[in-house]
Amino acid sequence: MLYIGNHTTSSKGYAAMARQMIQNGGNTFAFFTRNPRGGKAKAIDPKDVEIYRALSEENHFGKIVAHAPYTLNACAAKENLRDFARETMADDLQRLEMTPGNYYNFHPGSHVGQGTEAGICRIAEILNDVLTDGQTTTVLLETMAGKGSEVGGTFEELRGIMDLVEKKEKIGVCLDTCHVWDGGYDIVNDLDGVLGTFDRIIGLSNLKAVHLNDSLNGLGSHKDRHAKIGEGQIGMEALVRVICHPALSGIPFILETPNDDEGWTREIAALRKAYTGED
Ligand code: FE
Ligand code: FE
Ligand code: ZN
User: Fold this and answer.
1) What is the phi-psi region of residue 224: left when phi exceeds 0, alpha when psi lies from -120 to 50, beta otherwise?
2) 7 part of the active site
3) Pairing verdict, β 207-212 and 171-176
4) Is 226 a residue of the active site?
5) Which of 67, 122, 236, 249 is the most exposed place for a label (fewest CB within 10 A)?
6) Known catalytic residue: 179?
7) Residue of 48, 231, 256, 261 marked active site
């Protein structure tokens, strides 16, 4: 089964997101848990969640992928910024229990001059503060493009964080195709090699979701500028190989391409048409 959808707007609630996704031809989606710049989250309406659950069951949705605000920096140098990251993640995880068993992905952070090692420690520290035995959500570290002082631009850095996390069964990785390409992993000419490296360093069983994006820039550019599918330097063929790869079968593929719903509908249809999995 191919689970594919796009990052959609959460302001109207879960049922509206599911309806939009059905209209777009999707069966999973991603959304910001609150204003992407941070701030207070809207209260979740249990009735809205009930409608969403019914829609998602009826339409055989896969797991959905909540996204933390991208301003959150778990390895900021300033303590008040780390407090904000900790409080936001803890609050998000609590709220996500209204829709149990899904994913919560976040950008590990930027070490802003403290060095990668210090960054890795701080990120793990916050994860150790917020992860609980009772949670049913898996928290996903996103692979980053390595822009500026971003932590998570290499598989080794993600492994470094994971090694320091106590509740290892509560975490995983979300692979962003634009980010890994910009980070220097050649998924165009050597997808098997990149996934082999991922398996050796992180373990493919920890790969829980993919952000499916083309990239405006070249291999190793460390830029992080997403392009529409087939309109960047990764290209349609390579991205189709990603969705068809047996090692990635059954995980959610999320489009974060610069589109409107019409554009996502077209991309989802084209990718579904090209998909050659066994279903
Ligand atoms: Fe992201
Ligand atoms: Fe992403
Ligand atoms: Zn990005």
Assistant:
1) left
2) no
3) parallel
4) yes
5) 249
6) yes
7) 256
Q: Are 128 and 89 in contact (CB under 8 A)?
A: no
Strands 109-110 and 150-151: what pairing? antiparallel
**Separation CA 74–CA 86 (nearest Å):** 7
Examine the residue annotation and report whether 256 is marked as an active-site residue of this protein: yes
| Catalytic-role residue among 70, 87, 117, 192 | 70
Return the H-helix or E-strand segment holding 181: helix 177-182
Strands 103-106 and 138-142: parallel
Helix (H, G, I), strand (E, B) or coil at 263: helix
Cβ neighbours for 256, distance < 8 A, ≥ 6 positions apart: 6, 7, 30, 176, 178, 211, 212, 213, 226
- Asked if 83 is an active-site residue, the reply is no
Segment 155-205, tens digit of pLDDT: 999 999 999 999 999 999 999 999 999 999 999 999 999 999 999 999 999
pLDDT in tens, 205-215: 999 999 999 99
Q: What's the rounded Cα separation, in Å, for the pair 180 and 162?
A: 18
